[in-house]
Design goal:
Length: 580
């Protein structure tokens, strides 16, 4: 059936491929065909993995101390029951046999069916049991990975080109899930839930493939293998297109690829406006492995290293040494260019099971970012020591997220002092002049700037959260995504005021939220006086192109007129003029 869905574009580009329905990257399984001669061996492999998972659960039960809470017992029993149920332990055998597919894929397909049935249940207790099913499946998947393939070698892996042809369709994905997808090379992503500046969307953008969020019904309406066109420019998803539409999109796809190719020529061009004012263009990263892209973009520095991603998808927290290795790797790769390392910004939509602060009534307003770090000084000190140790390998700066109170700045600086003393006691070198900056992402911070400028060496405006907290809308909630407006006069006032006050006071200021990577806003921000932008590496050359074609003498007065405007239609009119 041919139809079109509309969503919010998260990452530009056009991708044409086949739908691949997923519920979680953690449970993502490769799909490949099994030769007829190996089907029986594959079924045996599946049975062996089920048996192994059963043994593991029995062992867990046996090792349980006498004083263990009774919930543990109930939880293991429930998992054993799920595993024993024929819908999980037998049905995948039929899928393997009938569709000649690998065991992992068959298991995950069956899980999707079961999870779908549970999601429709009225009883919230039963609905939540989907998580138990997923956990049991994860255990069997691990057993499959650990086990040998009886009866021969690998039956085949999906090729890179097969993955490129796959379009991931999910109801929702967590940022931790999304980061796991960095290992794959899928063609595009679409999700039903999510706002454009949710961390899931931010990571999707860093994968540099077209992506849409907020499609609402895609996961229910699309079937595995449907032909899809993802238009990440217009926010359109075409399902089962007719040949004319397909031909049109193929043309647009090659035009877009050509434009991106042309931008590459700007890599070595110095970034400056038409009148010669230098503009610094920095990159945002989540993991050290993003450095290859940073290099390709010609970024002049790292403006935001979101270190919390180092803490995700692991069974234990990264040690000080592990963190040090990651920070050093990035610092060295940048060869003396600035690297702004943001301290842990966990909480809200970025959760890690080991450091979960428990259920929070409103996580975005709860124990997040610096609040969490100050509540867990040992964890914070370990990170500060790791960053300080890496500071001798490049030009590192420390950035503190979500500050609102003077005492948060003071306590953070006090802990930094303590981390330095600890290193001195251990006779470990660090850069004594390491600069410390603060994110301006809570309206209170933007309105109380002198307090920040007095204690900090630089500022970085996090527009994603600044918008969320100014307009009181959850950036991850697609139901209020239409209210998320970077051009709201209150938002623009806070941004312009921060830039102008910092410029007047001689405190370096950057924007590292998603607004910095939006070419439609580059001239506006330049007109406000911004001279340092930090964004995803693949947005950088498009922003540079904008900068190169901007005349500050024209942009400045128009940007000031935008600031005086309170009528949204007029604001958009002025912005169009600014961008003409
Ligand atoms: C921001 O809030 O704009 C920001 C850059 O931080 P994050 O997106 O990681 O919350
Ligand atoms: Mg933020």
């Amino acid at each position: 059936m041919n139809f079109v869905l509309h969503g919010a574009p998260v990452s530009a580009g056009i991708s044409i491929g086949h739908a691949h329905l997923v519920s979680s990257a953690r449970l993502e399984a490769a799909h490949y065909e099994i030769p007829a001669s190996q089907v029986q061996a594959e079924i045996l492999r599946f049975d062996a993995a089920i048996a192994r998972a059963r043994q593991e659960l029995a062992a867990l039960e046996g090792q349980m101390p006498d004083d263990a809470p009774s919930e543990f017992d109930a939880f293991i029993n429930l998992h054993r029951m799920i595993l024993a149920d024929s819908s999980l332990s037998h049905e995948p055998r039929d899928i393997i046999r009938e569709r000649r597919t690998n065991a992992e894929w068959a298991l995950v397909q069956q899980m999707e069916t079961l999870v779908g049935q549970f999601e429709e249940m009225e009883d919230p207790y039963l609905r939540e049991r989907r998580q138990d099913i997923e956990q049991v499946v994860e255990r069997v998947l691990k057993a499959l990975q650990a086990g040998l393939r009886p009866g021969g070698g690998p039956a085949g892996e999906p090729s890179a080109s097969a993955e490129q042809n796959m379009i991931v369709v999910a109801h929702d994905l967590s940022p931790a899930d999304m980061i796991l997808f960095k290992r794959h090379k899928f063609g595009a992503f679409v999700t039903d839930a999510g706002g454009v500046t949710s961390h899931t969307a931010i990571v999707a953008r860093s994968l540099n493939i077209p992506a849409l969020v907020g499609l609402h019904t895609a996961r229910d309406m699309i079937r595995e293998n449907d032909v899809l066109i993802v238009d990440g420019i217009q926010g359109v998803l075409v399902v089962d297109p007719d040949p004319l539409v397909l031909a049109e999109y193929k043309l647009r796809q090659s035009q877009h690829a050509l434009e991106r190719q042309k931008l590459k020529r700007l890599k070595a061009t110095p970034s400056a406006t038409l009148d010669g004012t230098p503009i610094e263009l920095f990159a945002n990263i989540e993991l050290p492995q993003d450095m290859a892209e940073v290099k390709d973009s010609g970024a002049q520095g790292i403006g935001l290293f979101r270190t919390e991603f180092l803490f995700m998808n692991r069974d234990s927290l990264p040690t000080e040494d592990e963190q040090f290795e990651s920070y050093r790797e990035v610092a060295k790769a940048m060869e003396g260019k600035p690297v702004v390392i943001r301290t842990l910004d966990l909480g809200a939509d970025k959760t890690v099971s080991e450091v979960d602060g428990g259920e929070m009534p409103n996580p975005a307003l709860g124990l997040r970012a610096i609040r969490y770090c100050l509540a867990e000084p040992q964890l914070f000190l370990a990170q500060l020591r790791a960053i300080l140790r890496a500071s001798t390998h490049g030009k590192i700066r420390i950035l503190l997220p979500m500050l609102a109170h003077a005492h948060e700045i003071e306590q953070s600086l006090q802990l930094l002092k303590q981390a330095k003393q600890q290193l001195e006691e251990r006779k470990i070198a660090y850069d004594k002049s390491v600069e410390v900056g603060g994110m301006i992402e809570v309206p209170a911070a933007a309105l109380a700037l002198p307090m920040f400028m007095r204690h900090l060496d630089f500022l970085s405006i996090g527009t994603n959260d600044l918008i969320q907290y100014t307009l009181a809308i959850d950036r991850t909630d697609d139901k209020v995504a239409h209210l998320y407006d970077p051009l709201h006069p209150a938002v623009l006032h806070l941004i312009a005021h921060t830039i102008q006050a910092a410029n007047r006071g001689g405190t370096p200021v950057a924007v590292c939220g998603e607004m910095a990577g939006d070419a439609a806003l580059t001239r506006l921000l330049l007109g406000f006086g911004l001279r340092n932008f930090s964004m995803h590496p693949q947005q950088l050359l498009a922003i540079k192109e904008r900068v190169l074609r901007t005349n500050l003498a024209e942009a400045h007065p128009l940007a000031q007129r935008v600031l005086r405007q309170s009528d949204p239609a007029k604001t958009r009119e002025l912005l169009a003029k600014l961008n003409a």
